[in-house]
Input
Amino acid sequence: MQNLSELTTMRVGGKPAEIIVAKTRDDLIEATLEVWRSGDDWLILGGGSNLVVADEVDDLQVIKVETKGIQRFNGSAENKTVLRIQAGENWDDFVEQALELGLAGVEGMAGIPGTVGAGPVQNIGAYGQELSDTFVRLEFVDYETHEIVILDKADLAFGYRDSVIKRGRTGLITWVELELEHFGGLSAPISSGQIAGAFGAQMGDQLPLREVADSVKKMRATKGMLLNESDPDSVSCGSFFTNPVVSHTFARTLPEVSPRWETLEDDGLTVKLSAAWLIENSGINKGFSLPGSKAAISSKHCLAITNRGGATAAEIVQLANYVQLQVSNRFGITLVPEPNLISF
Output
């Protein structure tokens, strides 16, 4: 039996009671329902890139999702294609297949670790694109009712790194459908200032699809946000905290130099702040660690917490709590962790 430290990108987590590997949709549903009926603690595990698992998980039943397959369907317009992706497909492998088909809409999310099934839970996104931009529907096994249902975009109630599933509608995702577009080898209109700047382009321009994805991966690598066995800064969950969204009134209390972007939420126009800037300007520098701890802030990016070799899950969470305290004391903002904390 493997420790979960061997199956997660943060490389922490103890040995569970059982790991059940599901390679087909039907086996995945059957295994999950069986564990649910047992009443035991359980975890659906994909790529393990968005988890910090506790050091003691002796009573945890783990269902590892390794289902594969991508189907193509006609989209809502002539230049659009719907792809149904099984939950166990690696996200970056899926992006690569979309690029090979000349399909735009996910190129800004190249290099994001994890599986496709985990993507809708936190509405993954990067460089001006979010999964919700192309999302059509998914198949969902509801934990409360054990029923298999189809959830569309309205049902998911997507927000910034958020969905109704993350907010408590517990269950299993078996497949996800996304609708992507053909632009003759070009990307979707650029909505990231970093990408536009890298190409000397304007916002809204369309650039060569493959070049955009390659540029995104290079930028992720410079921040330690691209999985790489030779880069200790990539032994992480990527961004550990979400960028906080605050009111205009609160934003005016912060230093004028603090980065901010206006964003439209359900309750009106709000302001998104840079969690990385808040962390660094609360006195926590790149590479910071607590005395005696093997958990550290990335040497490349203040938003990532890394395992520098042999860190425990408790040390990871201890550092995260310290970061939250420092930012709260300095700016009055409580940062929200992006990864799921399991069995804490």
In short: The mean pLDDT is 95. The radius of gyration is 20 Å. The chain has three domains: 4-65, 70-222, 232-342.
